[in-house]
Structure formats: structure tokens, C-alpha cells
């Protein structure tokens, strides 16, 4: 039977007998005193409240409907403060190096000239934007909001699975999960000293205001959404409301003399910072996709002229592409002259002949991902796939090897989770959110995603995963 690190229980103390980890002890005592009926009633109450508030997630191509509830699990994921301190230091280090990398490739390209990253991996990358070459951005920051996916494997070691630097989502669920737990179980928050997360919108707004164009002392910030049919629209509206700023679509904005304005009932109002939740290709029909009805004609020119700040910057995607991911530890060493605090998952790059050979010979053991894939789509989980699925995927890899990477199937950590059969262990990951402005900041917490299907390693909401509240204990 496979061994998985259990977040709540340890079997090391007395043979195989499970012992509650110390930082879970108070919660475990509380949980043991709850009846099954109480837990079931609270679970139903949380579902009802989430539906009333409208906390849903759109699933494209889902015949059952355009939106569904993301399952919320009422058993929290608890992290000891010492573990969080190491995680936080590693995340700050990593995001700092990634921002330096993006600035470098759009300017001096020192890392390419040093032979650390092959030039074709960058300049032939679909996420590279030549329109950003030699464009200066405020404070040299490109990824103002980063959502870094962390997994735990082996004997509890943390690994970075992905860097999400384009339009990372999920922070609204982190905030709403906490509000839900405080509403359902207020007594738990008197028993534990849990780091708060509810100040994230204030932290985000301060961060966005800090990167306004030079000379702007009282910046106007907006959140730009593709519209209500986007899968993360709830989050766009939620964050705008929480920050007290306008939620706009492309049609609400226009550019005149390289300045961006918002249409209001009192006339045009200048916009200084746009927290955009729209992909690069759709931002400006004059510069990117001419058929885009979501963007603002002339936005790129205003951006290049330094009259508006876009967060995250155009072209950040080149740094979170899965073909670039294997080089992030090298970036940390190159730009910061430090050893990485957080490790990558070992990765095979199928564009390399020897890595391709190994991957093809071991597909049943590996997880294979499209380098541009996201949301759990376009991937093969070898141990959970049929022979036919493996052979079909083999043909795709052979046809386009540079489009894939492969990784060992990690024994992701598990945490007790309330499922149909009762409380059972389920695999999970963690997405903390890192903000880069005049300084790098983050709240103590993140979005824990959990695979609700027994044995599943895919935690994505689009693939049936759920979420948990994440507690960072302060003592």
C-alpha cells in the first residue's frame, strides 16, 4: 500500500498506530466531540450559503449547466507556523527571481547569453510577447499577483508544482472559506490563534496603488473582467467590491492621447492601474487579436508610453510556462546568488531526446502535461490511466515532443476530508498568493484544493476538486 504524508496524523510514534500531530491536537479533540449529524448539518448549511451568495464556478463545455458550486470541505488544513515561515521565505525568494527573469528577457537577456536557458525556449514560446521588448514597467515588476501551487510529498517536503503569473485565480475562495468557517464554527476560532486573511483586499489595493505610473499621487484602480460568462467572474466582482474600486469591461474604457479613461455618468475619468483578468491576446485588438471584443483599442500603446499600469504585465506568461518551470531554480541562483529554499518537482523535458525516451518508456508511472496546459486539462496521470489512454497519449507526445513535460507521480499528502462515506483522507495542494509592489507581501494562508474522488491526484475545480480553509497557526 502506498505511503502518503498525512497532514493531521503521524504513524511514527508507535508503529503504525496513528498519532495526531501536535498542531492538530486541539482541533482533533473538538472534532471527536462532534456527532455525525452535526457535521452533516453544517456541511449542508455551507452549501446553502454558498449558493445564496453566488459563489460558483463556470465549467466550459459542461452540458449540465454553465455554473456549479465548488465543494467546500469543513475540515480545515492546518499548517504549523514554523513550516509556514519556511514556505513564505521560499515563495518570496522565488517570486523575486521570476520578476527579475521576466525583466531580463525583455531587456538585456543576460540569462540567455550566459547559456542557462536555450533562447528558443523563450523566443519561440507562445507566451513571449515581442511587443514588450525594451518596454520599462514600474519598479521592474511584471508579476504583481502570483499564485504558486505547492504540494507536499515524501516525508512532508514541500515542492513547487506550478508558478501562476498571468491571471491567477482562487483568492476569493480563500477569503470566503474563512468567512464560512468563522460563521459555522466560531468556537474553533476561540480555541486556536489563527492568522487572519481578511485583510487581503486591502493589501492588494495598496499593492496596486504602489505601482501606479510615475507622477500619479492618487491613482484610480479598476478591475477589468471579460464579463459575467467568464469562469472566474465571481472573483472579479468580489475583489472589485472588496477593494471599493470599479469593475469594468473593455467597452467601459477608451484611450485618448495615450491615456486610458473610464466612461462614467459624470464624464470620462482617467484610469491609472488596471488589474486585468483578461489574457494578453484579448487586451487590445489593434495589437493582438483583431477579433477581440473584450479589449481596449490602443491600450498597448498607452501602456508602452507609461501612462497606465497593467497587472499583471503583458508577457508574464513566458515565466509560468511549463517548459520554463524546470529552469526556475537556476534563475534563483543566477539572479539572487542563493540556493532555492523550495524545490521543484523533478521534470523531464520531452524536447530532449533522452528525456523523451525515458518518458515514453515509463508513461504508466508518470504525470505528463502540456507545456501550455492549465486547469488539469491536457494531461496524463499514468497510474490512473487505461492502456488505451496511455497509448493515445503516447502518439500525441511523439507527434509533438516539445509540447510536453513529464514528472514522477508524487505521493501527494492527504488530509481528513468530509465525503459521502464520512471522514476519509484525500489528496490536496496549496496555492498561496504573493503580491509584488514596492515590497513583496502575502497573507498567512492560501487556497487549499482537495481531490474529492478517492485516489485522485487532480485537485482542480474544473476537474471536480473542492476547497478547504487553510489555517496558519500563530503559536
From TrEMBL:
Q: Give the InterPro entries listed for this entry.
A: ATP-dep_Glu-Cys_Ligase-2, CP_ATPgrasp_2, UCP005522
In which domain of life is the source organism classified? Bacteria
The family database entries (SUPFAM superfamilies) matched by this protein are listed as: Glutathione synthetase ATP-binding domain-like
Annotated ranges, domain Circularly permuted ATP-grasp type: 76-451
Name it.
Circularly permuted ATP-grasp type 2 domain-containing protein
Q: Which organism is it from?
A: Herbaspirillum seropedicae (strain SmR1)
Amino acid at each position: 500500500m502506498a505511503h502518503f504524508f498525512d497532514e493531521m496524523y503521524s504513524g511514527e510514534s508507535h508503529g503504525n498506530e496513528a498519532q495526531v500531530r501536535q498542531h492538530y491536537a486541539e482541533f482533533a479533540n473538538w472534532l471527536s466531540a462532534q456527532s455525525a449529524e452535526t457535521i452533516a448539518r453544517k456541511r449542508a448549511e455551507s452549501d446553502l450559503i454558498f449558493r445564496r451568495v453566488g459563489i460558483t464556478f463556470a465549467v466550459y463545455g459542461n452540458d449540465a449547466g454553465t455554473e456549479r458550486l465548488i465543494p467546500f470541505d469543513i475540515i480545515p488544513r492546518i499548517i504549523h507556523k514554523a513550516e509556514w515561515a519556511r514556505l513564505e521565505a521560499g515563495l518570496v525568494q522565488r517570486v523575486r527571481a521570476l520578476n527579475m527573469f521576466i525583466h531580463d528577457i525583455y531587456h538585456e537577456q543576460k540569462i540567455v547569453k550566459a547559456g542557462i536557458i536555450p533562447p528558443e525556449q523563450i523566443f519561440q514560446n507562445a507566451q513571449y510577447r515581442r511587443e514588450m521588448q525594451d518596454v520599462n514597467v514600474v519598479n521592474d515588476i511584471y508579476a504583481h499577483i502570483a499564485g504558486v501551487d505547492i504540494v507536499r510529498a515524501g516525508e512532508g517536503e514541500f515542492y513547487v508544482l506550478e508558478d501562476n503569473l498571468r491571471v491567477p485565480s482562487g483568492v476569493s475562495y480563500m477569503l470566503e472559506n474563512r468567512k464560512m468557517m468563522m460563521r459555522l464554527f466560531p468556537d474553533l476560532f476561540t480555541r486556536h490563534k489563527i492568522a487572519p486573511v481578511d485583510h487581503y483586499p486591502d493589501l492588494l489595493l495598496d499593492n496596486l496603488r504602489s505601482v501606479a505610473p510615475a507622477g500619479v499621487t492618487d491613482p484610480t484602480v479598476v478591475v477589468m473582467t471579460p464579463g459575467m460568462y467568464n469562469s472566474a467572474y465571481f472573483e472579479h466582482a468580489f475583489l472589485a467590491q472588496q477593494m471599493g474600486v470599479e469593475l469594468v469591461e473593455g467597452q467601459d474604457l477608451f484611450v485618448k492621447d495615450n491615456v486610458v479613461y473610464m466612461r462614467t455618468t459624470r464624464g470620462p475619468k482617467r484610469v491609472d492601474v488596471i488589474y486585468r483578468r483578461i489574457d494578453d491576446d484579448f487586451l487590445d485588438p489593434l495589437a493582438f487579436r483583431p477579433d477581440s471584443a473584450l479589449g481596449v483599442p490602443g491600450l498597448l500603446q498607452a501602456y508602452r508610453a507609461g501612462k497606465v499600469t497593467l497587472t499583471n504585465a503583458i508577457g508574464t506568461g513566458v515565466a509560468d510556462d511549463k517548459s520554463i518551470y524546470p529552469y526556475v531554480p537556476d534563475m534563483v541562483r543566477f539572479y539572487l546568488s542563493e540556493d532555492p529554499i523550495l524545490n521543484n518537482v523533478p521534470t523531464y523535458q520531452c524536447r530532449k531526446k533522452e528525456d523523451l525516451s525515458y518518458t515514453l518508456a515509463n508513461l504508466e508511472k508518470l504525470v505528463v502535461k502540456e507545456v501550455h496546459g492549465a486547469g488539469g486539462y491536457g494531461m496524463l496521470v499514468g497510474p490512473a490511466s487505461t492502456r488505451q489512454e496511455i497509448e493515445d497519449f503516447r502518439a500525441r507526445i511523439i507527434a509533438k515532443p516539445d509540447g510536453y513535460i513529464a514528472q514522477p507521480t508524487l505521493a501527494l499528502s492527504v488530509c481528513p476530508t468530509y465525503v459521502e462515506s464520512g471522514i476519509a483522507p484525500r489528496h490536496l495542494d496549496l496555492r498561496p498568493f504573493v503580491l509584488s509592489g514596492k515590497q513583496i507581501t502575502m497573507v498567512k494562508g492560501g487556497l487549499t484544493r482537495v481531490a474529492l474522488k478517492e485516489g485522485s491526484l487532480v485537485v482542480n475545480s474544473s476537474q471536480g476538486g473542492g476547497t478547504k480553509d487553510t489555517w496558519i497557526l500563530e503559536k
